Amino acid sequence: MKGPQIRVLSFALMTLLLFSCERVQGDLNAFEELELNLSRSRQLKLTEGTYQSRITIKNRRIRMNLKKDDGSEQRIVFRLPRKTNIPTENGSFRISADDMNQNYDIDGNVETYSERGERIEGRERCFVRVARSRICFPGHPRHGGGCRVVVRHVPGWRQYAYYNQTDYRDFQLAMLTPGTQHIKANFIGEERRTRRIYIYRDHQCRIF
Q1: In whole angstroms, what is the distance from residue 17 CA to residue 181 CA?
Q2: 143: helix, coil or strand?
Q3: Do 174 and 188 contact (CB within 8 A), yes or no?
Q4: Contact call for residues 14 and 78 (beta carbons, < 8 A)
Q5: Which residues contact 30 (CB under 8 A, 6 or more apart)?
Q6: Which distant-in-sequence residues (6+ apart) come within 8 Å of 71 by Cβ?
Q7: Bigger pLDDT: 26 or 106?
Q8: Sign, CA torsion 107/58/36/12
């Protein structure tokens, strides 16, 4: 069986994911041919298959990059309804086809969880600004003379303790025949971010 083929651009993973996130990687699984509105006069047809996708949500717009069979990407932009309330952490939502000017309802679910790494302790290098005594040089200031305070950076260290926390946000979104529970396609994606959380960190830099 040949891989999925795209007509007229690619697929508008359609309103897929309207979450308050920045970027989500995932796959769209189309269980049958889909027809999506690109504008009042243009439509997009997507054949059955699986599509690698990347979605970015910003300024009340969904920007979706869909990978085509030839390896190139096609961007499709969707405007979000003003009344849309999408959970940023945990929750579900449904948006009707009429509200999006599309041919399918959207049913989505957002789940978040975190994993905490081991405690890490140690010390790191830092620098302290140390002002030395006032030094004077003979001659006119224009020619390098005069007095000035010499400042130099002296190496030191400070102690710290932290752990790395990885936050996961899973997205599941289905496109359904309007007013029913019949799923035409679904999208599954994940957003992952790791951040360092300090338990403590010395404010003072201790000179060697």
Answers
A1: 18
A2: helix
A3: no
A4: yes
A5: 4, 11, 46, 47, 48, 49, 50, 51, 184, 185
A6: none
A7: 26
A8: negative
Q: Strand runs (DSSP E) across the chain, as ranges?
A: 6-7, 23-30, 34-37, 43-46, 49-58, 61-67, 73-79, 91-95, 105-116, 120-137, 146-176, 183-201, 206-207
Letter for the amino acid at 86?
A: I
First to last CA, the chain: 69
| Tokens representing residue 170 in the block | 């899973």
CATH numeric code, 6-117+167-191 = 2.60.120
- Contacts for 51 with CB less than 8 Å, ≥ 6 apart: 4, 10, 11, 13, 27, 28, 30, 66, 67
This prediction's pTM: 0.64
Residue-wise pLDDT for 165-193, tens only, equals 999 988 888 889 999 999 999 889 998 89
Tokens 């849309």 sit at which residue? 84
Q: What whole-number distance in Å separates Cα of residue 80 and Cα of residue 53?
A: 19
Residues 115 and 164: beta-carbon distance below 8 Å: no
Phi-psi region of 38 (alpha: psi -120 to 50; beta: other; left: phi over 0): alpha
